[in-house]
Amino acid sequence: MNTKRRVAVAIGALVAPVLAVSLPAASASAHGWVTLPTSRQEQCAEGVVDCGQIKYEPQSVEGPKGLQSCSGGHAEYAELDDDSKGWKVTTVGSSATFTWHNTARHATANWQYFIGGQKIAEFDGHSQQPPADVSQQVNFGSYTGKQKVLAVWNIADTGNAFYSCVDVNIGGTPGGGDPGNPGGGDTCTAPAWDAAHVYNGGDSVSYGGHTWRAKWWVTGDKPGTTGQWGVWEDLGACPA
User: Fold this and answer.
1) Which stretch is the leader sequence (predicted)?
2) What is the pLDDT of residues 87-101, one digit of tens each?
C-alpha cells in the first residue's frame, strides 16, 4: 500500500504543473467608460445605435497610451471610429460635466480630453484608485458646433489607457442646429441633483446640462450612470 501511495503522489506531482499551464489565465472582466454625456459605447450598450461586440462590453476599450482612436485600436470595436454611424449628439454649453463609470478602479495617472487631436483638459489622478464614478467639468474653450470629444483615462501602473468618444454640439440648440447661444444646454429649471437627497418617482433634477426624471424612489444614484433600464430617465438637454 505504501508503494502504491508513493506512486500516486508522484503522478499527481507531475500532472499538477501540466494542469496549471493548461488552465486559462483569469482576465479582468470590466474597466470603465464615459456614461455622461452619452458616449458612443454607452449608446451601443443601451441599444440607441446598432452595434456589434462593443454593446456587450462598453468598458473594455483599452489600448496603448497615446492613441487618438475611439476604438482604442481594437479591430472588433472599429465601428466606434465610424463618424457616419448616426451617433446621438448631446447639446452642451461652453463646458460640460463628463462622468466615467469605472467597474475596475485602476490607479490613475490622469484623465485627458481632446478635440481634433488638441488637448482641451487634463485632470491629475495622483496615481490613486478612483471612485466608481468620477465627474469632471470640461471647458471647451473656443470650440463651437458639433465636435467629437475623445476622453482618455491613463492608467498609472501600466502602459495602457481607456478610450471613450462623445459627440457634442457646443453652444447649439437641443435639436442639433447651428451654434448660437453659448449657454445652450446650461439653463436648467429643475433643481440640481443632490447625492444626499431622497427622490420619489416623478421628481425631476438637473445634472450635466440635462433634465432627468426619477422613475421610482432613489437616493445616491447619479443621473446618467444607471443606463437605459435604470432609475433616471433622460429628458434631454436643458433649453438655451
Assistant:
1) 1-20
2) 999 998 899 999 999
Residue 16: C-alpha distances to residues 12, 23, 27, 72, 223 (Å): 6, 11, 21, 38, 50
CATH of the domain spanning 32-170: 2.70.50.50
Q: Determine contact, residues 73/67, Cβ cutoff 8 Å.
A: yes
**Residue 147 grid coordinates:** 465636435
pTM of the model: 0.64
Q: What angle do CA 87, 93, 96 make, to 5 degrees?
A: 75
Which pairing describes strands 145-155 and 108-115: parallel, antiparallel, or unpaired? antiparallel
Low-confidence ranges of the chain (pLDDT < 70): 1-30, 173-187, 226-228, 239-240
d(CA 182, CA 145): 10
Query: What are phi and psi for residue 213, nearest 5 degrees?
Result: -120, 130
Neighbours of 57 (CB within 10 A): 17
- Overall size of the chain counted in residues: 240
Fold of 183-240: Seminal Fluid Protein  PDC-109 (Domain B) (2.10.10)
Starting from the edge strand earliest in sequence, which strands make up the sheet with 32-36, in order?
A: 32-36, 95-102, 133-139
